[in-house]
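Side project, low priority. Logging it here so it doesn't get lost.
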Amino acid sequence: MQSLSAVRPPERRVSLIQFKMVNYYETLKVSPKASRKEIKSAYRRLARQLHPDKNNGSEKTAIAFAEIAEAYEILGNP
């Protein structure tokens, strides 16, 4: 009779990807009760401030710009 360890396949170790919870309302600096018009206005205001062309290609502002674009994509189209 074979031992159980010989029959079972070896355990696989799977690395779990950690997910960061993002509050899109905080990203756009608006209330969760904000209207679509307020969300659009906040996005445009932040986009003007954080646009990479306006900030000499700063990597930090480019990342922030991408974050607000993602937030607007989610909140702007309910």
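Brief comment: The chain has a mean pLDDT of 84.
Revisit when time allows.
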